[in-house]
Amino acid sequence: MSLQRLYKAFVAVVSSRLVPSASPKFQVATPLPQSTTRLGPNVTATSLVHARSRCRMFSDLPLDLVLEIMGWCSPHDLLALQNACSTFCSLLLNNHHIWRLARASGFPLPIAAPSEEWLFVTPSATVCRRPTQELPYSYSLGIRLCSASCSYYLLRVCPGDVDEYIAQDWAILSTRPDNMDDVYALMLQATPYLEGTAESPMYRPSGIHDALKELYAAANSGGLDLLELNWKQRAAAMPIFMAMAETLQDATRRYRAKKELVEARNRSLLAAIARENKVTFDQLITSRTLVRYVNTFARDLTCMTLQAWATISEACLAEIQWLRTPKARIRCTLCRPERKQTYTWAGLQAHMRAIHPELHSTIALKVHICALCPNATRFPRSKDLKYHVRNVHSSTRTDL
């Protein structure tokens, strides 16, 4: 169901790009990125056929986009996405922005995408906690099942036969009764027919209601048993899905290797920038703006350039200067001369409110002290203090 809704949103977005006269009711005004793979009116059927021959699905997608797709789709959705429409896969592979445009036109995001550790590290089953090599049952909910009894106990479509059905594994299930609370909570969700509903109020109530009706109808329909059909489908799809998992691991490995090279290149550039501006490397990376930009470049596998540094250099150097500016410690002139304790400006205000409350409102508030001067210069007006700090100390600090 989630795949069909996403595909409809995708078709609406792509049709609006290919045919300018088409204007679906949920048209998105998000600007397209300026790249050579941008869709436009000149896209022809021939280009789509050539794109189909280059379809490798997950091999060239960024890791963050792969995790996002897995947060949206169940394993069956991924198999259907790869096998049912290769043109859709090719367009998604060669135009990453289409996924985000379709996502903006469709339903809200799940609460979070799965982590790398959960995908690639051998975990335990959700119900019995036994180590398992089985494929995930649900990515967005983080469910792994090791046997049909675990699946039956999780879905619980026929509660009257629970004891009879799981008798063979009851000894193992009873050894970990503490995790049953989590399983009961998962039973209340519409799994696996609606991904991303666990602890998430973002989905529309009507969508959850439809998914629950679908789950009830599938559980009570005649013919082949739901669990038996489920496991037969998973057994048939195992080779294809294992190949997809290996492709994901290779893509993750290449992504991390490229990211390490980009980070090393960016560190060498930052070291040169630090020497040019006569600051240490540790002082340079104290700028939050610089750290945010560097992390963004590393995530996108792009080396930072001097042009990028020129756009943020003024803000970064101002942050570094603000952090390097020392805060003078001031003596309280209202205390006895033999008292040698000194305070910062904030500490002095707290001291005067606590020790000299009767003088704080009449004297202290009328005297403005420069916390940057070693001798704590006083000024009768606040604008005089600001003029002094701006011209003498060349600072714009406002916390003095």
Automatic annotation (TrEMBL):
TM stretches of this protein: none
Classification via InterPro entries: F-box-like_dom_sf, F-box_dom, Znf_C2H2_type
Domain F-box, chain residue ranges per copy: 55-102
Pfam families, per the entry: F-box
Superkingdom in the source lineage: Eukaryota
Protein name: F-box domain-containing protein
Organism annotation: Mycena metata
